[in-house]
Amino acid sequence: xxxxxxxxxxxxxxxxxxxxxxxxxxxxxxxxxxxxxxxxxxxxxxxxxxxxxxxxxxxxxxxxxxxxxxxxxxxxxxxxxxxxxxxxxxxxxxxxxxxxxxxxxxxxxxxxxxxxxxxxxxxxxxxxxxxxxxxxxxxxxxxxxxxxxxxxxxxxxxxxxxxxxxxxxxxxxxxxxxxxxxxxxxxxxxxxxxxxxxxxxxxxxxxxxxxxxxxxxxxxxxxxxxxxxxxxxxxxxxxxxxxxxxxxxxxxxxxxxxxxxxxxxxxxxxxxxxxxxxxxxxxxxxxxxxxxxx
Length: 294
Fold this sequence. Notes:
Blueprint: H1 2-14, H2 17-24, H3 28-42, E1 47-50, E2 53-56, H4 58-75, E3 88-93, H5 95-98, H6 102-112, E4 117-122, H7 125-133, E5 139-143, E6 153-168, H8 176-182, E7 184-188, H9 193-204, E8 210-215, H10 218-226, E9 232-235, E10 247-250, E11 258-266, H11 273-285, E12 291-293
Parallel strand pairs: 3-4, 3-5, 7-8
Antiparallel strand pairs: 1-2, 5-11, 6-9, 6-10, 6-11, 6-12
Helix pairs in contact: 1-2, 1-3, 1-4, 2-3, 6-11
């Protein structure tokens, strides 16, 4: 709600959704979505739309005054002992990143910026990407989406993780195609970007599978394989240096495909100094050479 209230103040000041978005680093669509969400929460309209302008109606002006006071009170929360408000950096992260490079990056940030606060939000890549686009969080460490990002978002590649066929340790054979077609299959959830890669891989090679389960959490899939529920196609993550003793990984050879893990964030000009520092720290700790892309 606080994000929406701050955007409301920007719209009232700038006069249009587009101008407000330019001012605060959001797309016009993201501003529009935030304002619609705010109006839905309140239960009444805030604007009298005339052409491209967004003029506050009577209720809108009342809410604006209240919003400005709430923002003032909110900004005073978590004040440092010196009396100034602490900068909060909000970062979304998929589970594997939370278990690998993120804790070290956050520790380094708090050493360099002792007055700042951080908040880590877990989630699926698509949901976290939408939160960055809407301005609800500063950045997100996610799987690279299979589509182009909005022009005002930036991508930094952190790691390329190869997919392997994971099978129970005592399963005989090393022919991954034969094992995929003959053994029960535990599917990486198709809602996730990584799961979509698995689905495209299977369809591209016309590989039939005997699906028995579909799960999003990678650790859960590994445990299912260890308990002989089936085999699975999984990325070897930075946190997964070694597979558990109860499973073994089979290389896909020339058919190996990867998932790219990276950091998505708005332009540097729209990030606070601690947020910019965290982007650099995460990039420096990445296992692969970072690649900045627009």
